[in-house]
Amino acid sequence: MNLTRWVIRLPGTQRRNAATAEGGVSQAGRGPGEEPGGVPTARGELHDLAPAAPRSGQGIDAQAIHELLGQVPTPVAVVRGPDHRVAYVNGAYAALFGTRIPGRPARESLTELVDIGLLPLLDQVQRSGTPRSLKTRSVPGDTRDSYFTFTCTPVRIAATADDPAQRGVLVFATDVTDQVTAAERLRESESQQRAAAVTLQRSLLPQRLEQPDDLRVAATYQPGGIDAAVGGDWYDVITLGAGRTAVVIGDVMGRGVRAAAVMGQLRTAVRAYARLDLPPHEVLQLLDGLAAEIDASQIATCVYAVYDPNEGTLTYASAGHLPIFIREPDASVRRVSDPTGPPLGTGGWLHTSGAVPFGPGSSVVLYTDGLVERRDADIDEGIDTLEQALAGAGDSPQIVCDRLLRSLGISEDHDDDVAILVLTCPERHGDEAELFRGAALDLLGGIEAAPRARAFADGVLASWRFPEELRELGVLAASELVANSLKHGRAPMGLRLRRTDRRLIVEVTDGDEHLPRRQQAAPVDEAGRGIAVVATIAAEWGARRLPEGGKAVWAEFALPDAS
């Protein structure tokens, strides 16, 4: 029914009786001001309701319309005039808000409409003649609040002998409590799921980053805004031994608990593969196959890099990830993007490694796409903005993380996860520089190699003012590792000693790629005890293949005053 075409005729006994007689509607047994079923209302003010049909000039049964409004199960009210005097309320309205006295202004009688801010809307409807709605307003109840949407429709109240024609408004309330309750439950459920995903992801990320001797490291992770499902961003820092450090950052495509679970498995696998001390491209090759096995429908991007302080290089491999940025000591910024392979989980690709210089005073920034990607801009614009911001962000790694977040406009309501990992190779001066020293000796082989290595190690360790016990252990480790290379390796060979503020590292290289293993020698065996001796006296030991061929075997000793 188009309510904008209805006319309300106020009291007119003769007209009402004529309409009743013509329509054959009996009013017996029903008193004025009473709805069917005996609910008292302000209905006595509304006696005639007929369509505004200027062409035919014919009305319809007013009593039938009256009964129709009275039987509508949702609250209905009619007001008239500039001060919105009560003309009619149906039984549902009276049951919800109580009986209303006809003829009183809405500001006095319909206080419930005043409380929800409906009066300005009634004014607009009367002036414009256009229906308006007020959506989802809370109405207090005895046991719980209800929610209604109020639709206000203009009507014309016909003139009578006592009252001139007036404009009025029909207020129709629709109960939307069930919809509001369902929406609240859905929001609560989504909030709980998001909280679970965020908790899962944070528990899978490093609770405390490893702090290598030769690097300063900081990271930050910020989940997407309240309305965004958490993603699968992750990062990690892994000490490999012999002063070398591996770093990784990645992003699992998709959202929610599923992405976080895949992320956790990949991060665990990276740590396991890193312990094998493989080149970066081989680590990504293993991850690629594992990602396809975990979930063939999920793909992930990743950068895995290894820093070697002896060489002053960062060796890396990328699986579809965003370019690495390196900030040099002179504040220039270098973008490192090649080589890059496809994302993890796609299969059928051989990844390759690249290497870039990374020396004192330089910083490396790894990040996920949430930092630079926007829905309304090309991702290259975000990468360019990051490059400019990094040029002016020369400070500690944690401060760099914070500045990049601010420069890229990342706030709490950002709609995507953001992860940033910053590495800085500090410049050392004065007493601190004395704590970080290195020495190397090339060995040509032959019977004089072992004595020469022992003499070299003893002299270097003495110059570094190590205690006698530690110096003896370092010389013994150098002697055993050189003897092992003389027996099982081949030229070229070399001995390298390195100290930090926390440990002494003894490393021997040779041209053979067969990695040594710790063996259990029998009491009568004259050989096979060298690696066992090293493993016994050292805090850590290990071996790895070199990119240029050959291998390196190393042992670490903790300094007595190391914290």
The residue fraction in helices comes out at 25-40%
Mean pLDDT: 82
DSSP strand content: 25-35%
Count all strands and give the number.
23
End-to-end separation: 84 Å
Tally the helices: 15
Q: Output the structural class.
A: alpha+beta
The backbone outline, from C-alpha atoms, is rod-shaped
- Mind describing the biggest β-sheet? 7 strands, mixed
Radius of gyration: 41 Å
Describe the structure.
The protein has 563 residues and is α+β, with helices and mostly antiparallel strands. A hairpin with a 3-residue loop joins strand 20 and strand 21 (503-510). The N and C termini lie far apart (84 Å). It is rod-shaped and about 130 Å long. Helix 7 (177-204) runs parallel beside helix 8 (256-275), helix 10 (379-391) packs across helix 11 (397-407) and helix 14 packs antiparallel against helix 15 (530-537). It has helices at 13-23, 62-71, 91-97, 106-109, 111-115, 119-128, 177-204, 256-275, 280-294, 379-391, 397-407, 431-434, 449-463, 468-488, 530-537, and strands spanning 6-9, 48-51, 76-80, 85-89, 132-139, 146-158, 166-175, 216-222, 232-241, 244-252, 300-308, 313-319, 324-327, 333-336, 340-341, 354-357, 363-367, 418-424, 437-443, 493-499, 503-510, 540-545, 551-558. The strands form four sheets. Strands 1, 2, 3, 4, 5, 6 and 7 form a seven-stranded mixed beta sheet that branches. Strands 9, 10, 11, 12, 15 and 16 form a six-stranded mixed beta sheet that branches. It has 15 helices and 23 strands.
